[in-house]
Please model this.
Amino acid sequence: MFYDDGYVTRSTVLDVAGTVHAFSTRLGGISTLPHTQSMNIAPGYGDSEEIIRKNTDLLAGFLGGFSVADTVCAHQIHSAKVRVIDSSNRGEGTVTDAGEDCDGYVTATRGVVPMVRTADCAPIILCAPREGSTPVVAVLHAGWRGTVADIAGEGVRKMMSFGVKTEDIRAAIGPHIGFCCFEVGEDLRDAVRSIRGADFARRHIRENGTLHADLTGMNLELLLEAGVLPEHMDASCECTFCLEEKYHSHRRGKGMRGTMGSLAAIL
Ligand SMILES: [Zn+2]
Model:
């Protein structure tokens, strides 16, 4: 179950001892431009580097005891590429695209804070305990391309490489554009068909006056296929496009928008 906690939203399913996480809203930052206010963590939309740095610092602070010096962010490429990171990556990519391009991170190291940027795409956070060792966390960025490339499954497999069991993995899909507002064209449906098959496309891209895509359903199915138990999954039912006061939305703003951050850490 998702619940609001101050300026961020969190899921009870990710309540694993020794881990913290947050999905940001557009609230709680210092950006003052109409389209980026107030929590915008991406450069390139009108806010100065100083504002981005301060917002990222505030957001990391919502995890308790973390700062912008701990966060790791990279240029996202709508792929299924998930990088393993550790404390040597701390501080990468806040205002410049440092590090390797990717769409997700896995870490088993304390103190480093992987973060993805979204404004309609789905942020996914996973965590799992390990017997006799630190927990493992993963943070993923899943737009439709990354989703059908199975970044969710890739995140699960990368966690398993740390000795995590699938039945111990918890997964929460944060706020993203809902089926209500994610109108798509036949070209997108055809691309999904060719990558994941006609049945997958039929289940998740349906007529609602026009064609609409269901990012929630796609990612839940792929998490299930990767072995995550249904009772260990959660998805926010809030649509970033519908809720203008609470979330940034790329589609609603036609590109003029701020960007939210989703992040996790091991304590
Ligand atoms: Zn909507």
